[in-house]
Design brief:
Layout (H helix, E strand, L loop, with lengths): L1 E6 L6 E7 L2 H20 L2 H17 L1 H12 L3 H19 L9 E2 L4 E9 L2 E5 L5 H14 L3 E5 L6 H12 L7 E3 L4 H10 L3 E7 L2 H12 L4 E5 L5 E4 L5 H13 L11 E5 L3 H13 L19 H8 L7 E5 L13 E4 L6 H4 L6 E7 L2 H9 L6 E5 L3 H10 L4 E4 L18 E2 L12 E9 L3
Parallel strand pairs: 5-6, 5-8, 6-7, 8-9, 10-11, 10-15, 11-14, 13-14, 15-16
Antiparallel strand pairs: 1-2, 3-4, 4-18, 9-17, 12-13
Helix pairs in contact: 1-7, 2-4, 2-6, 3-4, 3-6, 4-5, 9-10
The chain binds NADP nicotinamide-adenine-dinucleotide phosphate and magnesium ion.
Keywords: Oxidoreductase
Protein name: Aldehyde dehydrogenase
Organism: Nocardia uniformis
């Protein structure tokens, strides 16, 4: 064990210290989870459901505390942080409805009956990034626990505080010991051990595509199950027949929310050429109007970036030759601030168009017609989310079917609801989280034939 520090990104002050697990501590946690698995698996479905409901209620009772922890640890605005803690509660309540509904099939066969079971996997390892520490954790552990698995959870080293608190709340709510453990530590140590330890039967990873590929390759060694939620470079496509005022007023929030540190950020705005100039005119006041500042202030809409190193990485996308159309504001003084920034890319290979910035930087570019919009939107290795703005319902349907992405919205920017499926096409990921099938992703289907012939 070594001790690590947690820094408040809005003040640059140390807010807490925590213990970083080494390989031995990680192995011990995995082995405890492995021993706890049969008891949890064999518990009556209704009892497992009741405990998850109690866990949800404990989160709800602690909602303001969890939200304040996230403001201090991740610099999230207080409004967002409350939504995030509420999302954990809701995912748990929804998951609590799953144990009694994990239905198998009865399939017609000759000479007997054939039935299927959805068996839990055993220990599930969940690796969480720093951008949405609470929701991303819950999207994994809610359904994994509901399906009868035990969970070891690794938060990002930068943002362990809410995960550690959720671990305490689970115990206080009555979950048996070692059914849900939070193991804080480095990705290359704790996360890597989830990949290599044979008792961990599935890894759920959210983070960079680069590390996601390593996790997938590592899991191949044991044919370990894996769900990956990786990067994005999502398109916000605005057609000339759209409600331009609404499209321009909402576009900043679709990319600058959480300071752009969102895998679903609509970081490419594609605008039909005939309304391109008009759209930029409408976008400018909307971007300048984004309230950037103290995340604890109820009126704030955008906080700081997560760390000094990340701010440097984001700034690296703006080269001296980069054409910046306009920017929003940022506070002076301590904190890892970066203003909302609108860029006009130089050409289709400009890094700001091809790479995930993961900061408040958006590229705006024109397209000619529907086919051109689809071509540009799909000209990316990613395929996570996107938005289509048009008043033509036929076009909305044609374009949503043609865009290669897992989560699309029409005349809006919503990507995530706990009861609808979420995940990426192409290099944005593998598998789906949330929605009615969430628990199935944490099971193996077992087929059993029972002979009835004498
Ligand atoms: P990252 O390295 O992919 O980290 C994500 C999580 O994986 C963290 O918990 C990290 O641990 C862990 N990890 C790192 N290396 C690992 C390994 N070899 N084995 C197992 N686990 C490992 O992401 P990042 O470095 O924080 O961010 C880099 C970029 O990734 C961002 O700028 C952004 O473009 C992208 N990103 C995307 C998402 C998303 O939601 N899709 C989220 C975060 C980042 P520690 O950090 O604690 O060591
Ligand atoms: Mg990393």
């Amino acid at each position: 064990m070594t001790t690590s520090q947690v820094i408040n990104p809005a003040t640059e002050k140390v807010v807490a210290t925590f213990e970083s697990a080494d390989v031995a501590a990680t192995d011990a946690a995995i082995e405890r989870a492995h021993r706890a698995a049969p008891g949890w698996r064999d518990m009556a479905p209704g009892d497992r459901a009741r405990l998850l409901r109690r866990f949800a209620e404990a989160v709800d009772a602690d909602l303001e505390n969890l939200a304040r922890l996230e403001v201090a640890n991740a610099g999230h605005t207080i409004g967002n942080a409350r939504w995030e803690a509420g999302n954990v509660r809701d995912v748990l309540h929804y998951s609590a409805g799953l144990p009694e509904r994990l239905l198998g099939s009865q399939i017609p066969v000759a000479g007997g009956i054939d039935i299927t079971f959805h068996e839990p996997l055993g220990v599930v390892g969940i690796i969480v990034p720093w951008n949405f520490p609470m929701p991303i954790a819950a999207w994994g552990f809610g359904p994994a626990l509901a399906a009868g698995n035990t969970v070891v959870l690794k938060p990002a080293e930068l943002t362990p505080l809410t995960a550690l608190r959720l671990g305490e709340l689970a115990l206080a709510a009555g979950l048996p010991e070692h059914v849900f453990q939070v193991v804080s530590g480095r990705g290359s140590v704790v996360g890597q051990r989830f990949v290599t330890h044979p008792a961990v039967r599935k890894v759920v990873f959210t983070g960079s595509t680069e590390v996601g590929k390593q996790i997938m390759a590592g899991c191949a060694e044991q044919v370990k199950r894996v769900t990956l939620e990786l990067g994005g470079k999502s398109a916000n496509i605005v057609f000339a027949d759209a409600d331009l005022d609404k499209a321009a007023a909402t576009a900043p929030y679709a990319v600058f929310d959480n300071a752009g540190q969102d895998c679903c950020a609509r970081s490419r705005i594609l605008v039909q050429r005939s309304v391109f100039d008009r759209f930029l005119e409408l976008l400018e006041p909307a971007v300048r109007g984004v309230r950037v500042g103290d995340p604890a202030d109820e009126a704030t809409e955008m906080g700081p970036l997560i760390s000094a190193a990340h701010r440097e990485r984001v700034a690296g996308f703006l080269e001296p030759s980069t054409k910046v159309a306009f920017t929003g504001t940022r506070p002076e003084g301590p904190g890892f601030w970066f203003p909302p920034t609108v860029v006009l890319p130089a050409g289709p290979t400009d890094r700001v168009l091809t790479e995930e910035v993961f900061g408040p930087v958006v590229a705006v570019l024109p397209f000619t017609d529907e086919a051109d919009a689809i071509r540009i939107a799909n000209d990316s290795e990613y395929g996570l989310s996107g938005s289509i703005w048009t008043s033509d319902v036929g076009r909305a349907l044609r374009v949503t079917r043609a865009v290669e992405a897992g989560n699309l919205s029409v005349n809006s920017h919503s990507s995530v609801r706990y009861w609808t499926p979420f995940g990426g096409f192409k290099q944005s990921g593998l598998g789906r989280e949330l929605g009615p099938d969430a628990a199935r992703a944490f099971t193996e289907t077992k087929n059993v034939f029972i002979a009835t012939d004498q």
